[in-house]
Amino acid sequence: MSEDVLSLRKSLRQQRNHLHPNDRKIFDLSINRTLLKSGILLRLPRIASYLANDGEPALDFFLINSAEMHCQHYLPTLYQQQLKFAAYSWGDTLKNNRFNIPEPEFKQFFSAKLLDMILVPLVGFDAQGHRIGMGGGFYDRTLNFMLNPACKRKPLLIGIAYNIQRVQIITPQRWDIPLDAIITELGLTCFSNRARLLLRTS
Ligand SMILES: Nc1ncnc2c1ncn2[C@@H]1O[C@H](COP(=O)(O)OP(=O)(O)OP(=O)(O)O)[C@@H](O)[C@H]1O
Ligand SMILES: [Mg+2]
User: Fold this and answer.
1) Whose Cα sits closest to atom 13 in ligand 1?
2) Which of 18, 24, 26, 95 is deepest in the core (most CB within 10 A)?
3) CA dist 9 → 60, 80, 123 (Å)
4) Residue 137 Cα, ligand 2 centroid: separation in angstroms?
5) pTM > 0.90: yes or no
6) Is 110 in the pocket of ligand 1 (CB under 6 A)?
């Protein structure tokens, strides 16, 4: 891991954590509204999201307001060096994992292969849809199957971030899985044709 990426990750995390609470509230609402009107709930009903940690945009409004719709939410849970996904409804009992991140307590694990869409929290992103995460490689390892050209059924990967996390260029590593789209408080940007077909941008 290059020093540059390590210091970039540190500075982006600091900026994300120091966002003014009023701005955060406004930005989160905008991100959640973009998600709710994107049409994904109808087209991609098995959705993995996350509970905000380390200053990540909170998706609570989206989780609460889509509860009555035709979709099933999942949260990532640690499983060895990878992630498995556990069904989650707002208010379900949670238990902290070894990184102190809450996970559904009573879990039945599902593979990422069974999901229609994964909302991935980003530490950094660029205009090509390359991403930097927290540095554990958990999402990359979990989604490695998507790099196989024979893989036909892939979850749509949507990065979630604040616009301050945009960087000039991220040089992807061979294990990095590219994003289909990104949502920030400024709206939705699609990188793949599949995302352009499936998501409503306005
Ligand atoms: N498919 C893989 N198989 C084995 N190791 C992997 C794989 N993907 C990533 N890694 C390892 O994980 C480490 C961290 O990867 P990287 O810097 O891309 O993290 P990240 O993308 O920020 O984290 P995350 O995927 O959790 O968001 C790398 O050093 C890499 O060796
Ligand atoms: Mg990576």
Assistant:
1) 137
2) 24
3) 25, 24, 7
4) 6
5) yes
6) no
3-state secondary structure of 75: strand
3-class state of residue 149 by DSSP: coil
199 has which bridge partners?
none
Q: Is the pLDDT of residue 107 over 80?
A: no
Closest CA to 189 of 122, 129, 121, 133: 129
Answer whether 157 contacts ligand 1 (Cβ < 6 A): no
The yes-or-no verdict on residue 114 having pLDDT over 80 is: yes
Q: Which of 199, 130, 193, 198 is nearest to 159 (CA)?
A: 130
Distance 70 CA to ligand 2 centre (A): 32
Q: Looking at this protein, which amino acid is placed at residue 126? A: D
Residue 43: per-residue pLDDT: 80
Domains present along the chain, CATH in parentheses: 3-91+105-198 (3.40.50.10420)
Helices (H), 77-119: none
How far is the centre of ligand 1, averaged over its atoms, from the C-alpha of 189 (Å)? 24
